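[job 0412] stage=fold_complex status=start
inputs:
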Amino acid sequence: MSLEGARERWVRTGGIELCVAELGDETQPTVVLVHGYPDSKEVWSEVAGRLSERFHVVLYDVRGHGRSTAPQPLRGGFTLEKLTDDFLAVADAVSPDRPVHLVGHDWGSVQSWEFVTVKRTEGRIASFTSMSGPSLDHFGHWIKRRVKRPTPRRVGQLLGQGAKSWYVYLLHTPVLPELAWRGPLGRRWPKILQRVEKVPADGYPTPSLPSDAAHGAWLYRDNVRARLSRPRTDAYAHAPVQLVTPLGDAFLSEKLYDELELWAPQLVRRTLPAKHWIPRTRPDQLASWITEFVIASEGGRPAPVASGPYADRFGGQLVLVTGAGSGIGRATAYAFAEAGARVVAVDRNAEGAARTAEMSRLIGAPDAWAETVDVSDEQAMEKLAEKVATEYGVVDVLVNNAGIGLSGSFFDTTAEDWRKVLDVNLWGVIHGCRLFGKQMAERGQGGHIVNTASAAAYQPSKALPAYSTSKAAVLMLSECLRAELAGQGIGVSAICPGFVHTNITSTARFAGVAAEEEKRRQKRAARLYRLRGYPPEKVADAVLRAVVRNQAVVPVTPEARGAHLMSRFAPRALRAIARLEPPL
Amino acid sequence: MTRMVGMTKGAAAELSAELRGFKEVQRLAYACAEAVAAQLKPGVTEREAARMQRVWLRERGVRDWFHLPFAWFGDRTAFVNFRVPLQFFPTDRRLEPGMPFILDMAPVHKGCTADIGYSGSLGLNPVQDKLLADLEAHRELILREVRERRPLREIYEDVDRLMVRQGYANRHRAYPFGVIAHKVDRVKERAWSPHLFGFGTQSLKGLAGDALRGHRDGWSPLWSPYRFSDHPPRPGLWAVEPHLGFRGTGAKFEEILVVTDSRDPEQSAFWLDDDLPHVRRWAEDR
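[job 0412] stage=fold_complex status=done
writing structure:
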């Protein structure tokens, strides 16, 4: 693992030589990446490469790590004060007259919190992106508050984080950690990382790992006890802070950041469904968030204004919704737009798609595009997938929503009717999953697929044989795909809305009746659905929630939930209902 | 009134004199809306805004109301979670920068009624701007279809469809009976005219009389999505109020549409006044 095209230099400070690497155009804003424990600057290689297209990227090996030299003696050589000296020396060397943008992961973030909250660095830091590393001072206050005023919840939080911090106690024992790292643990670490964290196996960690990890133990020993027992009371951030929280982090709980607004007044929160080593597993997402935040801090573009729920989770992500020209698809596109996502609105009705994209931009989407495609058209979908990948990127969330309605008895349903319904409702989903899901899987940085099935997928009915069959297939497809993609961090959800007030009723086909009768039934169905009055916005909320919680099957309306329950515990009753004549 | 209404000469002259009265009070109401909107600041509550309208109009001689002034701020402009009519009344919701607002008032002046709706926002609000711009199509659609003498219920459904195409929710469905318009008429001036749930009793009496007569003849003074509105437009003055809602932001206009029994389509229906804030705004945007 190397930093391709990096310019290297050495910075001397307090008897230490720091190995500094630079990428990108030096006239652009400087972004300094600080690595964690037990890492070296190469942990950033994927992120740095992406950032170097726009910024002057600087990485350095923290003292005692990688190719930087270690202090003599080690004890007392890793205090936060000395690490601040190092950072200032690097910043002065690489960007003498402009403040730098700081990004820290793990211990890199812990020390960066020190940099961004002490007086002597004021004016040298333009912004700070923190991931998986709290300020020890904030952490100290967090513990104190919970010890002083324990409530069951607070005690639970304390014990939870206490259990997650097992390695911190181990690292405080003398000699043993060093022996382990220089011995068997150091040898096995890369394999452990691959298995537990699912980081790609491409030559990282570097061979210096055993000595990095052995030296880095002093980061803990020199600072943790001292800071946690006597936290500074003036640890306020003097630069805007972006907090990225991986939700599956084995070492830190999200609760640590509950009161962070008190310390960092200009705070933007981001969450990511990933484990601890996100610089390795989610470089695309990190690079895009860092870019957005740096540009906003430079005053180039105002900070994101997304106001909707889950803005921390979907901000800046790319979301593609089919059938986005109306109904549930449109409401879903809007909900993602409100959460600050970039939206691709796909519909066969060009006007509807364009409208959705336009309104999405107005309510918070940093960007939105309309695409006119019939999802049942394989070639058109292939073209769309290619275009989206090259022009907008790999989608983070795919919502296969496009669908058509068809009612009528089995024998009234012609072969042509069957083909049409399966083409759109089933093949549309297959094409979407196949093309966009493949891009997601190939990128290997997670994602989510949502398929709109229907309550008709598990509720048989003599009036909807073709429609129900297509939707049942979508449900099963989703569940199978979910199993297949689980290992790659890609979730799959099937949404089963139920009776929702959209215009699917007024465009639904009624097989086996004359045109006039069909119109009458459409009107009547539309009226019934309107009387039911369940808004598509609530389904959209369920879609976002399903993605956030990675739910497998989501019945939405009460009747959909009831039928779902019955399909498991009282299927005979459902079969009896299936025989009823619908009131059309 | 420059337009002549196709009736006998005497009746026409009488009507245009009457129209002048309605036009004046409609202008007065819009002037009030603009004056109050200009005074709105962060922290003002809906109640205060409603009182400002009442005071302003009372100072100019308004003694009776079709309904008392309303003010809706923020997501209340889109009637978010409105279920019972009491929620229409002004609350202590405070105005914040960028928030949309709607002022709605129906004063009676010299025996003539106006019922107007004025949408705006404190500072920039691109979403409401868009909604307001999209209302233009509704004003055109309503006039065109009324001139075609289409049943009111059908026009209502066309307005509905246009809103769905535009991606909005129809918020006037939350109005009593889901009306998009109601008839307005002359109101007898009385020394004492109390109001009932915010509505002037004299005007309610007029509306009830119309409903009674209409019920016998098969028409209704309320323009709704229901069967009782399944008749061609009745001559008279209609206060039309299409109201768009979009995710916590709402916008509406309300003004008087004149319907006559003239055979000339141009004369059979026209907006009472084309020099109103929202119309001027569309002209400026073009």
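[job 0412] summary: DSSP finds 22 helices and 17 strands in chain A.
[job 0412] exit 0
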